[in-house]
Amino acid sequence: MTTYNKMIFEVSQPGRIGVDLPTSDVDPVTLTDKFPSHLLRDSEAELPEVSELQLMRHYTALSNKNYGVDSGFYPLGSCTMKYNPKVNEDIARLDGISRIHPYQPEETVQGALQLLYELQADLAEITGMDEVSLQPSAGAQGEWTGLMIAKHYHKQNGQNRTKVLVPDSAHGTNPATAAIAGFETVTIPSNEAGLVDLAELKQHVNEETAALMLTNPNTLGLFEKDIVEIAQVVHEAGGLLYYDGANANAILGRTTPGKMGFDIVHLNLHKTFTTPHGGGGPGAGPVGVTKELAPYLPIPRVEKNGDQYTLNTSEKLSIGRVKGYYGNFGILARAYTYIRTMGPDGLYQVSESAVLHANYLKKRLEPYYATPYPQVCKHEFVLSGSKQKKLGVRTLDIAKRLLDFGYHPPTIYFPLNVEEGLMIEPTETETKETLDAFADTMIAIAKEVENDPQMVLNAPHTTVIGRLDETKASRKPILRYTKED
Amino acid sequence: MTKTIKFTIKHEWIVPLTDNRARIGITDFAQQELGDIVYVENAEVDDKVNAGDSLGVIESVKAASDFYAPISGTIVKVNESLEDEPEKINSDPYEAGWLVEIEFTDPSELEQLLDEAAYQNLIAEGEE
Amino acid sequence: MTARFRYLPDTIEDQQAMLDFLKMDSLDDLYADLPKSIRLTEPLTIPAALPESLLVKKMHQLAGRNINANQYSYFLGAGTYDHFIPSVVNHVISRSEFYTAYTPYQPEISQGELQAIFEFQTMVCELTGMDVANSSMYDGFTAVAEAAALAVTSTKRPKVIVAETVHPETRAILATNAEGLEYTVNTAERTGDITSLTCLAEQTDEQTAAIIVQYPNFLGSIEDLAEIKKIAQDNGALFIVSANPLALAVLQAPGKLGADIVVGDMQPLGIPMSFGGPHCGYFAATKKLMRKIPGRIVGQSNDADGKRGFTLALQAREQHIRRERASSNICSNQALNALASAVCMSALGKKGIQQMAKLNIEKADYLANQLREKGFPIHNQSAFFNEFVVELPVSTKDANQALFEAGFIGGFDLSGIYSLDTHMLIAVTEQRTKEEIDQFVAVLGALS
């Protein structure tokens, strides 16, 4: 099956169809009578014409050329590729979840509003925040929502704060979001231990500071142990502390961003709370805030009055709307189902297993790969391919070689402050046997680099396609199918 | 009036063509660091810039880097052939891969730039 | 004895073996670097874990407290529609090779996803008449805001003009975005059911980055894109059209009427309503704007043997490379929903999509005619697609209550938005039968 290489447009034949729509039971309309002729199509949209079986064969063949968490180990750092529970999928597809309209009367969607209300409360508890909005569609939108809240808050207090501080190890989204929210980014260098340098931070924090954006554990998988002092420094200068929840899978039930002193938090439900990545989305990026910032949360807010759940759209200080309707409800229903499956004890075990797995794997690999940050890590860790680079093999080559053994490679060349970085996040849902097998493979590759580097340099050898010419794809882009004559 | 090539610490080169006109590009070192260049978002003719202002962005597959004006002036010509063949910057950074031509008013700005020896030292230091 | 969970495979022995290897005494040692002052000392106060059997029962009960489109017949649209979704859609997107995959950063093991998205991009280009499309955005609303941001940054002009007939939530989201990027949003008023061209022409000037209209607009009517394009062109502004992709099966492609950017939501094609999300924004543009489009784009390339393959292309535009210089911060796309709509479009095909669009037109037309016959004024003067506005003798709220009692979810209440206080926005999709429509008319006819 993996040799299939047809486009759906190439299996198409005029006259075939994959649905049977009902014939019209009302009076026919002649389009040219109803619409001005220049607003009617003058040529048909060339969609494919296939039978239902042809369609299924096509997409099944494509799925066979794709790798998901259900296919095998996916130690992709900072992405938290844990198991996506099947019951969550079933729940999200119930008619009472998937076939309800966002504008139908509140009285007819009390179950949906209850789910949202309870999920807000659960996430507030998990993050140690006072109030949560489930609106943002993804982490990046959550970040932007959070920074817009900071912007409004400072403005309301008559302060013109224009700068957002971001550590140099941060994901590119942080500075990009700051720019979109109208802030200037100031980059704070990390110290040798991979943590925020307090002295540097103090130098950059001042009356212009709107917020510091931080992940904790940070992108190197290390816990910012000076977090209390960091919070103090920022707060004393009148700034806010923003928690990027990308790495929340490490801390469930152990601590909360609220305890650490954060004012604004976003979570990625598609990471910590098992909603599937879907090949790139949809996700969900709820935002939590302290009581003081709650009036600025986006509208509508889900509230409870007596026995009734309601939508409130009239908060005066709110930053406004950030997304259509009430967030990615179908995703939120999955996360809700997961949290109900695990309960407090389960979530606690999730994090400690995730952290145990990361440390175990790290220690197994330490003799073979450079570990720039040897201390205890949290749910993920970063290796450097610097030893291998000296032998002429790059981290990219190691990643490609892993494909031959049936693994998804780790995140590579991130964070930017690690040379030839390999970022590994095993997650809690993998068995010890899997971790061991992966470690054995990584060790075997390290030996190959020494003994048979060509094997690694030319990898992958077993995939349906070799390394693609990415330069060509960006220099002379072909971004759609065009029929050859 | 020096006609020789000068460099910036951000890896641009500039060669005066006449008393008030010069050609600008990025150095061989810079193109190597960027890797295969796929696109140039170049300045536009008549843009007025100060020394140090961004002139545009050079994109490779995995990076996007600004390039900056070594001196102040007005852009009078851009290398339009880069639209279709950005790879010229990789293959011939000092000739066919030039980026813009600038008309300048203050030749003394040129004096503040690095000469070839100083630029080579800069690169050598960076690699240590 | 600690409770065991089915998603957590570590046995006591596994844990002990790993701790031994790490030379640690307990799992708490892994958290030794957490300052004492920030540690939680009590368990989280969230509800206790439920076994799957009980959880499923509870979730069915909760879902049962929502009225759904299998129980009632929906005449409600306003941006989200009850359309038919072929069974194949759910079967394809339920293949876990698709839905449990991450973003296709490793093309060698992601060819399925990449090709499916490449095909999706092609279908979006076909419907919109544009040169390039991205791999999808959060939703149609935020896609408009992204388009406006692109216009402002690429034209370096500080203002966009949005038609009053654009969805109110789109306009609200645009306002929030504009505050971040610090540009101005002006609204061009409507005359009746469509944008006032006079008003639009008066407001548009050389400071205008873009004109934004919706097609069909929020009131269901078809704006004359050709006339609006002239105004944009005269002032050097970009022309942004937010379009319903199903309507584009029969309506002229915005690209052929001069649009620079076409955005919208694929929800009508294969994506369940799901209380408003997740849906799937799309974003298409002219070739000229190709390198400024936000979000992921899949491109075709080949490997060393010349074999055709697909990979993420033009990544230098994106936030993970441009960081603070990026013009959008979007990281993800709605890949799985883009796949769903691609499957739906493939099932419908070139002819089916036209047939479906036409059913919508005919049923909406039939309902409007029936209402007219009963003496209800229809507000739309221009041609409409599957939605229109009717004036009622009572408030929309009261009318909807009567409809609800008869098994209908009535239309959208326009009071408070356009000072159309007794006006209802009604959507009629191919899902509505003549019988349902006749009953609907009968209920409204009994009001006064």
Automatic annotation (TrEMBL), chain A:
Its EC number is 1.4.4.2. Residues 351-451 form the Glycine dehydrogenase C-terminal domain. GO terms for cellular component: cytosol; glycine cleavage complex. Its cofactor is pyridoxal 5'-phosphate. Gene3D superfamilies: 6.20.440.10, Aspartate Aminotransferase, domain 1 (3.90.1150.10), Type I PLP-dependent aspartate aminotransferase-like (Major domain) (3.40.640.10). It catalyses: N(6)-[(R)-lipoyl]-L-lysyl-[glycine-cleavage complex H protein] + glycine + H(+) = N(6)-[(R)-S(8)-aminomethyldihydrolipoyl]-L-lysyl-[glycine-cleavage complex H protein] + CO2. It comes from the Bacteria. CDD domains: GDC-P (cd00613). Residues 33-298 form the Glycine cleavage system P-protein N-terminal domain. Keywords: Oxidoreductase, Pyridoxal phosphate. It holds the Pfam family GDC-P. InterPro entries: GcvPB, GDC-P_C, GDC-P_N, GDC_P, PyrdxlP-dep_Trfase, PyrdxlP-dep_Trfase_major, PyrdxlP-dep_Trfase_small. The modification N6-(pyridoxal phosphate)lysine is found at K271. GO terms for molecular function: glycine binding; glycine dehydrogenase (decarboxylating) activity; pyridoxal phosphate binding. GO terms for biological process: glycine decarboxylation via glycine cleavage system. The keyword Oxidoreductase applies. It is an enzyme of class 1 (oxidoreductase). The glycine cleavage system catalyzes the degradation of glycine. The P protein binds the alpha-amino group of glycine through its pyridoxal phosphate cofactor; CO(2) is released and the remaining methylamine moiety is then transferred to the lipoamide cofactor of the H protein. The glycine cleavage system is composed of four proteins: P, T, L and H. In this organism, the P 'protein' is a heterodimer of two subunits. Belongs to the GcvP family. C-terminal subunit subfamily. This is Probable glycine dehydrogenase (decarboxylating) subunit 2. The gene is gcvPB.
From TrEMBL, chain B:
Keywords: Lipoyl. GO terms for cellular component: cytosol; glycine cleavage complex. Residues 21-103 form the Lipoyl-binding domain. PROSITE patterns: BIOTINYL_LIPOYL, LIPOYL. One of its GO terms (biological process) is glycine decarboxylation via glycine cleavage system. Binds 1 lipoyl cofactor covalently. NCBIfam families: gcvH, PRK01202.1. The glycine cleavage system is composed of four proteins: P, T, L and H. This is Glycine cleavage system H protein.
From TrEMBL, chain C:
Pfam families: GDC-P. Residues 6-444 form the Glycine cleavage system P-protein N-terminal domain. It catalyses: N(6)-[(R)-lipoyl]-L-lysyl-[glycine-cleavage complex H protein] + glycine + H(+) = N(6)-[(R)-S(8)-aminomethyldihydrolipoyl]-L-lysyl-[glycine-cleavage complex H protein] + CO2. Its EC number is 1.4.4.2. GO terms for molecular function: glycine dehydrogenase (decarboxylating) activity. Keywords: Oxidoreductase. GO terms for biological process: glycine decarboxylation via glycine cleavage system; nucleoside metabolic process. It is an enzyme of class 1 (oxidoreductase). InterPro entries: GcvPA (IPR023010), GDC-P_N (IPR049315), GDC_P (IPR020581), PyrdxlP-dep_Trfase (IPR015424), PyrdxlP-dep_Trfase_major (IPR015421), PyrdxlP-dep_Trfase_small (IPR015422). It comes from the Bacteria. Gene3D superfamilies: Aspartate Aminotransferase, domain 1, Type I PLP-dependent aspartate aminotransferase-like (Major domain). Belongs to the GcvP family. N-terminal subunit subfamily. The glycine cleavage system is composed of four proteins: P, T, L and H. In this organism, the P 'protein' is a heterodimer of two subunits. The glycine cleavage system catalyzes the degradation of glycine. The P protein binds the alpha-amino group of glycine through its pyridoxal phosphate cofactor; CO(2) is released and the remaining methylamine moiety is then transferred to the lipoamide cofactor of the H protein. This is Probable glycine dehydrogenase (decarboxylating) subunit 1. It comes from Amphibacillus marinus.
